[in-house]
Amino acid sequence: MCFQQKMIHSLFLINCSGDIFLEKHWKSVVSQSVCDYFFEAQEKAIDVENVPPVISTPHHYLISIYRDKIFFVSVIQTEVPPLFVIEFLHRVADTFQDYFGECSETAIKDNVVIVYELLEEMLDNGFPLATESNILKELIKPPTILRSVVNSITGSSNVGDTLPTGQLSNIPWRRAGVKYTNNEAYFDVIEEIDAIIDKSGSTVFAEIQGVIDSCIKLSGMPDLSLSFMNPRLLDDVSFHPCIRFKRWESERVLSFIPPDGNFRLISYRVSSQNLVAIPVYVKHMISFKENTSSGRFDVTIGPKQNMGKTVEGVVMTVHMPKAVLNMNLTATQGSYTFDPVTKVLTWDVGKITPQKLPNLKGMVNLQSGAPKPEENPSLNIQFKIQQLAISGLKVNRLDMYGEKYKPFKGVKYITKAGKFQVRT
Amino acid sequence: MGIFLPLVWFRHDDLKEMLDSNKDSLKLEAMKRIVAMIARGKNASDLFPAVVKNVACKNIEVKKLVYVYLVRYAEEQQDLALLSISTFQRGLKDPNQLIRASALRVLSSIRVPIIVPIMMLAIKEAASDMSPYVRKTAAHAIPKLYSLDSDQKDQLIEVIEKLLADKTTLVAGSVVMAFEEVCPERIDLIHKNYRKLCNLLIDVEEWGQVVIINMLTRYARTQFLSPNQNESLLEENTEKAFYGSEEEDAKDAKAEAAVLAKCKPYVMDPDHRLLLRNTKPLLQSRNAAVVMAVAQLYFHLAPKAEVGVIAKALVRLLRSHSEVQYVVLQNVATMSIKRRGMFEPYLKSFYIRSTDPTQIKILKLEVLTNLANETNISTILREFQTYIRSMDKDFVAATIQAIGRCATNIGKVRDTCLNGLVQLLSNRDELVVAESVVVIKKLLQMQPAQHSEIIKHMAKLTDNIQVPMARASILWLIGEYCEHVPKIAPDVLRKMAKSFTNEEDIVKLQVINLAAKLYLTNSKQSKLLTQYVLNLAKYDQNYDIRDRARFIRQLIVPTEKSGALNKYAKKLFLAQKPAPILESSFKDRDHFQLGSLSHLLNAKAVGYQELPDWPDEAPDPSVRNVEVPEWTKCTSREKRKEKVEKPFYSDSEGESGPTESADSEPESGSEENGSSSSSGSSSSGTEEEEEEEEEDSGEQSEDKEEEEEVEKRPKRKDKEGSHKAVLGSAGSPSEEEEEEERAKKAKKKAPQGRKGRVETSSEASTSESSSSGSDSGSEAEAKQRKPPSSKASPKEISLLDLDDFTPSPVQPIPSSSIISTSLVTDLEGLTLTDSSLTPTLLSPAFSAVKTYELLHRMAGEGLAVEYCFSRRPFPGDPHMVAVQIQISNNTDTEVKNLRVNEPKPLSGMRIQEFPEIEHLAPGDTATVVMGIDFCDSTQAANFQLCTHTRQFYVSIQPPVGELMAPVFMSENEFKKEQGKLMGMSEITEKLTLPEKCQSDHTIVQQLTSAANVGRVPCGASNEYRFAAKTVTSGSLVLITLERREGSTAQLTINSEKMVIGTMLVKDIIQALAQ
Questions:
Q1: Are residues A231 and A268 in the same domain?
Q2: H helices within A28-169, ranges in order?
Q3: Are B73 and B62 in contact (CB under 8 A)?
Q4: How does DSSP classify residue B644?
Q5: Are A250 and B821 in contact (CB < 8 Å)?
Q6: What's the gap in Å between the CA of B584 and the closest CA on chain A?
Q7: Looking at the structure, do residues A192 and A308 belong to the same domain, yes or no?
Q8: Would A87 be classed as within a structural domain?
Q9: A130 and A20: one domain?
Q10: What ipTM describes this predicted complex?
């Protein structure tokens, strides 16, 4: 065939050991050998993260993503916006996650027929067709234990025999005829602090990124509007397609007919002019000595500006230099592990109580003879603060129009560490 | 293999048996196993006959899996695949739209050339299917067929053309995709659909948006003029201010843009503006591909000052998956070279974390380097210092190169950088040292004279630095620039000669090089040393070094045997070596369309469509005009706001006299005041325009004057014998002079024009209509002309006489409507798919507005009050009719505290008063809006109008046609609803259409002016359908006008409200008879 086609030609799923465990072609078949170019690039990259997402081969282009220890490698023949493909592949992985609870090799292998049916619906001739989870779930029912038992006895199918309405309605993200006995709408305001703290403890860069994840179980066609006490805080917002953009522009109100179930309503960035309150501080003393091939390690974590809430779920991970052989540490709180192969030190601290600050202290054994590491590793901190949105964002009210019943409404706030890094 | 083969064979037998059985469960099981085999890439083709038999199976899941199998193997087993075709052909006729769609999908996916004619037929049929979903599938099938048989191209283009005209959002993305694959060169197909695509865009599904935006980028590049064409002209004096504006907020940018717009004659095509405005909200999409598509559109199409808006969205994408980051950073890197200011505020977002993958780190570094300038370099260098200590050595090497680039670009920090790099020479890591030396070498090569100090310093380092690569590099430097360090060089050679035997090979080679160079420049001091070194080298263990020594000796030491090369030795060794250029690898990558695969690979990918350069002359913009603007959106708040601003704007213009700005107003106005004036100048007759002119007599005459200018200009031009098109050409430099000349002339004419305002008004109107009737030469001019309504003298009450309104090319969408904020328009967008279940209220398309008198000038003692029905939804209450009241004070004293008092509504009627007008200066006019709920009756609403001195009893009686609001519905819905409203609810009347009311246009015009209704598409050409809803109760009013033979016609109205129906019939007949 002399004519080149656009968009996605084929998809290969490859696991970490390099086995192609699933292939799907939307057009004529492309031989598995095309993946050799990918393996080549993978070898060169050493680290999985460094495999270039776009690889050019003599006849094809390979665009790949790495998700949950699986490479999704798509084969492209002609010019196409790379982000288009990447975004789509992530959407595929999200769908698997949504259907099977996890996006793993075993889950995919166990449900290979459903996977195939999904892929068939998601792309037509390599162009995305139905990617909304609501529509897909009407077309192909997700597997449940009960259904699989019933199916095996009765021989019935998990393909919906009623044809989906969503695709045809003007609200493609919501199916018609949703019914619940308990009508509930929950919103989780989740904020993550991205920060880089330098050696002296001052903030090099800090920013708050937030999302509102929703779980909406409402009957019929509810029309919701969610307003904030302080919407001006939101500097840069990206929306689920259901949100009426103009309403937001004019009134700063989120007005939408929600999809059914779990979805991400918005993600936002808090304007960078606002100073970000950093909830924890870290005192550290890490040093390596040249002649004794040993070093000292001493880290203390303490709470700071946490607005009276406890900082919990604190975990510190450190990628130690290659020369480190072993670490003998004592933790005043929580437990630590050191993996001598990957050189990763993980310290699970738990909750921080201001009375007794958690501390991890001890000796570092270095490879004898090797030169001392010049650089100190940076510390990655994770933490969680319940019932607090660090930016101060507050939901004002949620109104529902279009339906008569009274829904149960709930809002939860949580602050987490995002990419929170302390340089030492 | 020998063992496995029979086993596989056996298993397949087993599957065949299952497929042949009667039980669906067995068949399903077999199909599942087969699909699993396909998924693993195993060959299952020998099962084809057994599988294909089940294509007609009743069980949906079995059927689906058979389809999967069929699509996979049909190409290999063409003869057998043909057996299944009839099943799909039957499916194409199924009453269920989803079955029709899926049949078409599978049929078109079977790559068997024999069925091409069948596919063609199926696609053609599906393209005119009732269901938009099936039409979408048809659009998907087009590229499939094209790839199978390219000879079908012409026929497929016809189908594409048809589908492009489709108004549903569902189809738009898919058909543009088909267009891009089959006939991207047929840009002419887009013209008529351009505005529709722009307006539908926000409601199209995400993937379609990407495709449409990319296509429109290319389209815009061929159809509009570059918004930055005067860049070079302005650059010299405004460059500084320019960067400043980009750094700050959009507000400043806007102000800046306005300033710029004044001094340059470039005018943006309203369609160009439309595209930019309608894509901007999509920057907020959750889909990274959409955001990137908009970003590249802005980068390639927007005026320089507006590009900045995309930075924020792109920075947001950096939080996404690492693959997304990778692509985005590549594009940011390219953009940041050309428009550095854009990303400067987000500098810190590009700071690198130790956990970033190396490829991301290196890209971020690239961006940071591009962003570096004199003000932020110290912060960036401090950041780089941290990076140098990273464990990731590839990254460290990249950082050193980045420092080198900063040093070359920013003179101020060159020395600091050099010093920093020199310190790095003592690093233990060879890679770091090597990289530093290389970078230092590059830096020194640029200005060796100024840096003899550093060369000296490096010479000293030879004592300490042990890394051979670094030593070698230093020696090379000293050798190369030995003239700058004449005293040190021989000494270094002396030291090196001493330790020669202990050096690494690479160093030894450079020692020989150094010796040779010194011998040539300073043979007196170094002759013996050189010979010593060469002798040592002669007996070295390494043959490479021995060879080199022999070679150099022959070359530099003059002997009898040494040949001709000897005299060129100096030229050979001390030739000027070009300084390496340290520049970004992303430089000039922007000749590829950003966001494309080709850009990412920096090589042209197969099928890449070049982004064309801007044309020098804008092609005719009228090609985008559409004849029947059915789905015109109207506005609400936003527009109202502008209305307040507008008089001010045009007033000030009048004050400043018709200088250049006045002269070019009809053209440049659209740029400066974007929406308002462009909608004003489009002749679609938006109400705003008319109302405004009613409002203020002073302003009106200003307008008239402008009109005159417009009118006279082409004539003048003709005299001058210029044949250039008027519109859009203002930007080209050749025309600038002419423009100026014209401006001067206009200045001279101005006073005259002002005096003769009143007299000329009628004359202007006649000339206007005659010129529009006759071919006035330039179409563009005609388009810009305002409706003649404004020509009537200000004393007349009825300002609108539609009869002499000659339809000129219509611009269907007043651009101001696009940013309308109301929910109504929002919903309207959503219901463009014609399967909408509930009819939605629509703002009126465009229609004439009649004004009624509320208080005569005489009765009101100088206070004249008029009202009209603006046909906009009343903002406070959807059940109210908006009444626009215009009060003019013709007394010579100020009128104060103008308000509504004691409304005496009949039962159920409600009045929402307008806010009190504090004072109204003599000769002034104020316009206010009040809402009245008439309860769907034509009873008058009575109230008092009070001033600080007087009270007037007034009443507003609505014509029945104003008690409703238009509704958008499809033909099917219309029929369905009509079916429900038969019998008592139906009123039929026969009428005769007068001669002048025969054309489609006038009928629609007259009808929509009589009643506030929306047009419903109709298949039959002799039928007109309209739909509306009463404002209070929301009951449907359906109007059908059927033209019979001759000039007779039948009018049918279906409505629950019989009274309204009867009255409406009368009103409509009266309107049509006029």
A1: yes
A2: 35-45, 82-100, 105-110, 112-122, 133-139, 145-154
A3: no
A4: H
A5: yes
A6: 20
A7: no
A8: yes
A9: yes
A10: 0.91
